[in-house]
Design a protein that fits this description.
This protein has a 6-stranded parallel β-sheet, with helices on both faces. A 6-stranded parallel β-sheet has the order 11-10-9-12-13-14, sandwiched between helices. By secondary structure, the protein is an alpha/beta fold. The protein is about 35% helix and about 20% strand.
Length: about 550
Amino acid sequence: MTMNRTGGRILVDALITHGCDRLFQVPGESFLAVLDALHDTAAIDVVTCRQEGGAAFMACADGAMTGRPGICFVTRGPGATNASIGVHVAMQDSLPMILFIGDVDRGMRDREGFQEVDLPAMFAPLAKWATRIEDAARIPEYVARAWSVATGGRPGPVVIALPEDMLCDRVAATDRPAAGRVDRPLDPAAFADVLERLRIAERPVAIVGGAGWDKATGGAFDCFARSWGIPVAAAFRRQDTIANDSPVWAGNLGYGPNPKLVERIRSADLILAVGPRLGEATTDGYTLITPDHPGQALIHVHPDSGELNRVYYADIAVESAPFPFAAMLAAAEPPGTPRPAGAQAHAEWLDWSTPRVRDGVTMDLGQCVLAMRERMGAEVTIICNGAGNFSGWWHRYWRYGMQPSQLAPTCGAMGYGVPAAVAAALRHPDKQVVAVAGDGDFLMNGQELATAVQHGANLIVILVDNSGYGTIRMHQEREYPARISGTRLSNPDFAALARAYGGWADRVERTADFATALDAALARPGLRLIHCVTDIDVISPGTTIAALRAAH
């Protein structure tokens, strides 16, 4: 369509053309023309948030669930700097996202005007592409390119600055249709080499994760791994890559992994890494698998050629999105008998992921997760969390279903869980959405409970309160035992706070009371919060502060 429209109208029409059905925003006067166009646009659900960091996290989570860019609008200066955390997460987590930022008028630039920031310069190191639109007639071109960049290769964030006066210009612009993702076809010769390596390997292990996985991909890879008997481990916080009830599922890597899985990775003669970058968390600081991995062969499959052989030397480097590669593996002729290693690794994980009662612990989070498992199906539940030791209980003891059932930042950003849960509840109203948050983590974006209530989101918040920044306290006790500095927290009554937002809440201080509170939460809709008071001495699923001090 070509007709005279304002820049704001052209932009909204371009988003509709590319399939945008929801966006997250904190309003600003710098993009009033966009808000005006959205007033007459029923095709896009406008989610009004309370802080730009929360809005950006919601866009990250929405992109993770849909495979399309999550869309976020914020204003210049303070709005942009608040939203930058979401851009960082989208980049490190390989999530498609487009952040639109209202900017100063073109004629006022470079005078350090009100809230002026050089936005392309600021975001260039954080995003795949950061730019500014100067001509309203070119908005369709920029949006089409941004969509392609955000979803192509290794997905990631794009940032676009929108001068306020440009959005008000009325010009003739031609809408540009959405372009499909361009994937490089697999090289048959290289794939034949992959199969041959898999056939002759004695102790192969697969590590899966990264971007681009969905139910079809996970199902195809699971089919392959079962028929070959190859243990499948997940990269850090990618535990829903395949369903955890697969008979070859071996568990997750990252912080606090199963020691038996770690040993299995160390002793593997072949690593098949499909999708992950093999980052610091997954590889324990590039030591579990070293960049040169002597004595091990590495088949590295990744959708972006720039990632292959960048950090890790690959014996076979395959540029491919996960699905076509997984589909070819599933179609390949398997060995006559599956290897026993897959079943053995799964048995080890079943034992590792079964919580034992911890003696002397008043609030035993392992048993709380077990109560959730008994009441909530993995396939219909989405667990969302930010960063902190509290998440370790769910990483270890929850059993995830197929995507999307886990929304968690691999870059370790605090404050992600509640906004992600709001986005998940709006995207999947048929699922039970749970935000798991620590007390420090929750108060970084707890204001988005107001967004949840305003937009009718159904979600449960499990708030783990140990009155401290637990992860930092754990490191502090390891390095400087008993010298507590800067990690104590004085907290509000979180249950009362949730009620003030319009939700239901309960406070739980004993393990035996958690199941009752969970049953009450599951029996009602809307916002529900369970405030779990824990002892900071029980600092992780595997150790205590007392044990850390005793080790010195």
